[in-house]
């Protein structure tokens, strides 16, 4: 037997009346419902704001060149969701430019900070829930209560956790938002059909245009957004035109078709629209059948369901807070899945937890013994080269085209000097993985070491053609150009590396070094400081300290080197650089103590003896300075230039002690090892000048002048010789 409310509803529909919202109990109640839905969204997903960028977020945002600041906006509309060209064979073919554009706006407004990405997702979800409430009130239910229940269930349903807590899920949430807006605009744009079966007139062309625009936007956020146009057509045919199918469905007591057309939107996020509407509709019908107490029980059950969903959603958000939590959840759910263990092992390897990574790689291999990638990665984690080679070769036995194993084995053989096989392996790595940029860099490096510069250059150019978004390739090619004397071309590639990867501090430091070599110290300092904003590491601090030292800014150099020494307290180079600045800035006692401490750890440290000699010389203790230089010369070194500099310094100390003959001999040994020491030749000339051997003095001065043309001091010394010789000739003639 049909109840009165159901009978009334059927009669209204049979008279041709559209389903529409009835007046509520006031604007305040209506606003309260929307605030309650939004607040519930915030309560359920508030803990997701602490989350990192996890899973596919890394590839869609962090590693996506289209998302980075400075990238061409045109590329967003020509590449796929992951930043690959749509025409590329490796492209995913998922075309979602508006979603990528939203990521780009996020980066522009708040950088790569995960908080802002999660905040946008949360706001979008709250907006979708409120729009669903609007849609249900206007187009689905005649009472606000079932619409409110639908929105509540949708807001807290735990199936949405991935879409809201995972940043990549924004494609679903944003497409759903535009879907609902497009549908609402379409509903507002049309009037009522004059009679059943006739098409309705267009009431508002502006709203119809907005519907088309928003529907197209939904499609450009996620491909399934195009289904909004199908939903509008069905709504038009079955509801507005009041076709016979609608009457049959309603007479049988089933929910209206528009309850279910949203299920056409084949996304897990939007799919729950229809389910939530059906549940709310079922509860409404049950309430009309079971009476007052039954309605109370159903209401309490609904409240408990909302609370249960809320608790489950809050708990599920914890899984998406970090990559580790996500991987551990996967292992807990699928403990016998080799791929899950392999992925977790990759994460552990990337975070430096190598022993745990090895354990999970071994589990993956136990579950699937032919896992070539697990064998390859085990090879990268072992410290034994023979064991590493065994793992790589096992991986290649399983998959002879495994480009990573080919690359790793090639690099291993290259370090052992087996260049011929290494070259073959690296070429095959490129052949089977043409988008693997590291293989190009490694092969080019091998050619450069063999002085095959033309081939190395060709490999770099080919690599940049196949991997145009590789910042490392551009940086490495820049280094190659500097090393081969084409430094003028290197700057463009360093700049490109930074454009592709704004946090590429190595390219910034290399650019700073290049600018220093051209005496553009101001620009070099700016690039070093920019690199420091990315990474306050010794690799950045050391060249900046050297710049300050060489430009006479000793206090700034001291500050930079002290910070570097705190980061690497056992680094000999940093300690000695700091000691050198301390000496030049008049803090020789601290410099001496620091140098002696280094000498205790490294008794054969030549630079330590030289620095201690400089400290003693600064104090005027030339005999002690000479002793330290003699100790330095007793140490073994294969670098002849170092020995030549020590002999030159020894000559200086002997000259200060007025032991000119020994000083001359020390300078002579220095130029025999390093003939381009202009200062040594000049000092030899000075000693002969003092001794009165003007011919020998002139010979040495001219050799020094040939090395440093235009030296005013040498020209003055030669002029003095001329005057002395003229004077001597005049005296002899008189």
Mean pLDDT: 87
Number of helices: 37
What is the percent of helical residues? over 70%
Q: What is the strand tally?
A: 0
Shape: elongated
Distance linking N and C termini: 150 Å
Structural class: mainly alpha
Low confidence ranges:
1-22, 243-266
Largest sheet features: none
Global Rg: 39 Å
The oligomeric state is: single chain
User: Which percent range describes the beta-strand content?
Assistant: under 5%
Describe what you observe in this structure.
The protein is mainly alpha-helical. The chain has a domain at 4-53 and 112-317. It has 37 helices and no strands. The chain is elongated. It starts with a helix and ends with a helix.
């Amino acid at each position: 037997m049909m109840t009165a409310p159901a009978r009334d509803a059927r009669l209204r529909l049979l008279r041709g009346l559209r389903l529409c919202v009835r007046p509520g109990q006031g604007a305040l109640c209506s606003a309260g419902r929307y605030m309650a839905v939004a607040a519930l969204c915030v309560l359920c997903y508030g803990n997701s704001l602490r989350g990192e960028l996890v899973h596919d977020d890394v590839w869609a945002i962090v590693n996506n060149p289209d998302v980075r600041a400075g990238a061409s906006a045109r590329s967003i509309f020509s590449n796929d969701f992951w930043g690959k060209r749509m025409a590329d064979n490796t492209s995913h073919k998922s075309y979602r430019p508006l979603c990528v554009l939203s990521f780009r706006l996020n980066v522009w407004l708040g950088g790569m900070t995960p908080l802002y990405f999660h905040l946008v997702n949360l706001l979008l979800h709250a907006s979708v829930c409120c729009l669903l409430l609007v849609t249900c009130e206007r187009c689905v239910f005649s009472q606000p209560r079932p619409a409110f229940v639908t929105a509540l269930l949708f807001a807290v349903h735990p199936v949405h956790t991935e879409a809201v807590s995972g940043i990549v899920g924004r494609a679903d949430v944003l497409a759903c938002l535009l879907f609902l807006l497009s549908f609402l605009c379409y509903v507002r744009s049309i009037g009522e059909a004059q009679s059943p079966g006739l098409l309705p007139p267009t009431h508002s062309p502006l709203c119809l245009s907005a519907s088309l625009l928003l529907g197209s936007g939904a499609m450009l956020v996620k491909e399934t957004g195009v289904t909004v146009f199908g939903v509008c057509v069905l709504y038009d045919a079955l509801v507005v035109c009041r076709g016979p199918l609608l009457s049959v469905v309603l007479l049988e007591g089933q929910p209206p078709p528009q309850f279910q057309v949203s299920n056409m939107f084949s996304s897990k996020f939007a799919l729950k629209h229809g389910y939530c509407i059906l549940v709310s509709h079922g509860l409404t019908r049950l309430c009309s059948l079971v009476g007052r107490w039954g309605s109370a029980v159903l209401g309490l059950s609904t409240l408990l369901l909302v609370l249960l969903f809320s608790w489950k959603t809050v708990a599920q958000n914890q899984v998406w807070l970090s990559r580790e939590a996500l991987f551990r959840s996967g292992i807990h759910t699928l403990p016998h899945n080799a791929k899950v263990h392999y992925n977790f092992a990759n994460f552990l390897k990337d975070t430096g937890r190598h022993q745990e990574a090895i354990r999970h790689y071994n589990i993956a291999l136990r579950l699937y013994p032919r896992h070539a990638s697990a064998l390859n990665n085990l090879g990268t984690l072992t410290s034994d080269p023979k064991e590493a080679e065994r793992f790589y070769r096992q991986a290649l036995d399983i998959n002879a085209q495994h480009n990573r194993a080919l690359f790793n084995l090639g690099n291993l053989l290259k370090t052992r000097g087996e260049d011929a096989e290494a070259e073959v392996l690296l070429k095959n790595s490129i052949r089977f993985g043409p988008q693997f940029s590291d293989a190009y860099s490694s092969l080019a490096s091998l050619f450069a070491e063999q002085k095959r510069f033309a081939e190395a250059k060709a490999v770099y150019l080919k690599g940049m053609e196949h991997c145009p978004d590789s910042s490392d390739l551009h940086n490495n090619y820049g280094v190659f150009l500097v090393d081969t004397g084409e430094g003028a071309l290197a700057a463009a590639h360093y700049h490109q590396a930074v454009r592709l990867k704004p946090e590429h501090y190595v390219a910034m430091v290399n650019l700073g070094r290049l600018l220093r070599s051209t005496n553009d110290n101001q620009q070099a300092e700016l690039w070093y400081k920019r690199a420091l904003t990315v990474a306050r590491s010794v690799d950045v601090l050391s060249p900046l300290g050297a710049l300050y030292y060489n430009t006479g800014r000793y206090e700034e150099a001291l500050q930079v080197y002290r910070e570097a020494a705190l980061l690497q307290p056992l680094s000999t180079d940093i300690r000695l650089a700091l000691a050198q600045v301390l000496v030049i800035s008049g803090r020789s006692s601290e410099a001496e103590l620091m140098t002696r401490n280094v000498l205790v750890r490294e008794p054969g440290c030549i630079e330590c003896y030289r620095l201690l000699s400089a400290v003693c010389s600064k104090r005027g203790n030339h005999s002690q300075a000479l002793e330290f230089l003699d100790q330095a010369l007793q140490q073994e070194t294969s670098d002849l230039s170092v020995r030549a500099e020590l002999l030159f310094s020894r000559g200086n100390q002997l000259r200060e002690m007025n032991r000119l003959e020994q000083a001359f001999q020390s300078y002579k040994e220095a130029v025999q090892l390093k003939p381009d020491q202009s200062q040594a030749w000049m000092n030899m000339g000075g000693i002969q000048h003092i001794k009165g051997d003007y011919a020998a003095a002139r010979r040495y001065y001219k050799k020094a002048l040939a090395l440093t043309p235009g030296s005013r001091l040498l020209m003055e010394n030669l002029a003095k010789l001329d005057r002395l010789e003229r004077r001597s000739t005049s005296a002899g003639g008189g």
